[in-house]
Design goal:
Elements: H1 4-15, H2 20-27, H3 31-41, H4 55-66, H5 71-78, H6 82-91
Helix pairs in contact: 1-3, 2-3, 4-5, 5-6
């Protein structure tokens, strides 16, 4: 029987990307049980991917980008990874950001 503390540990490890098999082995339960816990508590891991290349997505990303938000902030607000935002910005010719590195002259 899993305790609430065990379930929280399982959820934390699934969020970090650990495989269900290794978690199941560590907690002495089946992979199916890990899947049940994961589906109940982390539904975003078990949904079909959203279409992120649609015009609404790009328009919103462009607006946030033009407002001066960082790629990380745009990603957080749109609930995608930073790499998705960087890829969309690159493919859609968003204006480049100035370098954060200060040059000493």
């Amino acid at each position: 029987m899993l305790t609430i503390s065990d379930v929280r540990k399982i959820i934390r490890r699934r969020r970090c990307g650990d495989h269900a098999g290794s978690i199941a082995r560590d907690f002495g339960v089946t992979r199916e049980r890990i899947g049940q816990i994961s589906r109940a508590n982390l539904p975003h891991l078990h949904t079909t991917p959203r279409a992120i290349h649609g015009p609404d997505f790009i328009t919103l990303a462009r607006r946030l980008w033009d407002d001066g938000h960082s790629a990380s902030e745009v990603a957080r607000r749109m609930r995608v990874t930073k790499n998705v935002v960087i890829g969309i910005a690159h493919r859609n010719n968003f204006p480049p950001r100035p370098s954060p590195i200060r040059r000493v002259t």
